[in-house]
Amino acid sequence: MVGFHFKNNRWYSDGVALSxxxxxxxxxxxxxxxxxxxxxxxxxxxxxxxxxxLVAYSIKTxxxxxxxxxxxxxxxxxxxxxxxxxxxxxxxxxxxxxxxxAGVGKSDDEIAYALKExxxxxxxxxxxxxxxxxxxxxxxxxxAPIAVRFNPDVDPKTHHFITTGKKETKxxxxxxxxxxxxxxxRHCRSxxxxxxxxxxxxQMIQTASVGRAAKIVEKLVLQLRREGFPIHTINxxxxxxxxxxxxxxxxxxxxxxxxxxxIKRLNATLILEPGRxxxxxxxxxxxxxxxxKQSGTKTFYIVDSGMGELIRPALYEAYHQIAPLEGPQxxxxxxxxxxxxxxxxxxxxKGRKLPLMKRGDLMVIFSAGAYGSVMGSTYNSRPLPxxxxxxxxxxxxxxxxxxxxxxxxxxxxxx
Length: 415
Prior knowledge:
Helix content: 25-40%
CATH topology of the largest domain: TIM Barrel
Number of domains: 2
CATH architecture of the largest domain: Alpha-Beta Barrel
Number of helices: 12
């Protein structure tokens, strides 16, 4: 794992033993390697050097302010999907002209906030959204820059829950409706259409779907230019896969070989919105074994974190590598690793071969840098864990652990 390595019989993040962090702040807790985030960002950025481009980190995968700030210092842009994410991006210091606002359900208040902040543009996902943005901009006496997201009907060959480029999904405008979009935009005097967006799915482990989508976008852009629309920005989203369980996904340079020639032919600026690729393997979740439970022939490792800290296994039956934080790593028995939450779906692994462990032992769950803390919940009134960042031999609290008092701070008892 990038940023995480095993030496001296224990797991480290950069130069810090993970056991030291667990002793300091307890478990469960997230640990992020800032150098790992930076290295993955640079990998994407370098791959597209031959063309004008902006790598807009998708903060829906991990919106920790320390993480965002570290990437901004490298020149990163930011992809947001809500007013709250826009607020966090600006709080971290993101320049408005490097912020792209995506998402299928922007409210009028969010649109107004984004226009006030002066973002780079909106990724528009439907014809009614074009009209809504136009209406808000007109009231504010502003012109809203937009890129229309078209659904290229390309199968990304990934989990059906994270497929976004097929025509039956909620994302993007049906490609057959391009004439309708042109007609609406021509009547909307407060929007300026300058970009086309296409994103086919997440956790892709092959390049072909991106290549097909890019060719479809090229034809579309040429058509729109002939119709008088000054399309000069091409957004091909993100979706680059990471290694959860030996997938061996393509490198950004392999995608770039398919995309760069098209961007050059169009003399356009490329926008990319990677998230998981940058954050996924840059963070882990630390947890402690509470009980070893025998039930007939089954063995359960019951730990102190659950679907409230990492919901991906419950949501997608996703695979995450799990290992003892210290000691022998040799797998010798099949176990179910489960959490304390009162749901049968509260598990991290089923029938997984792991080393023999005992009550109190620490465990590390890998690839928790993406869709971990951002999808966290306080279900069962469990406070959210802390988020720790590591650089070199130093570590620091980037988000404090919630307290029980925090759980009721916004509540009032009606009497």
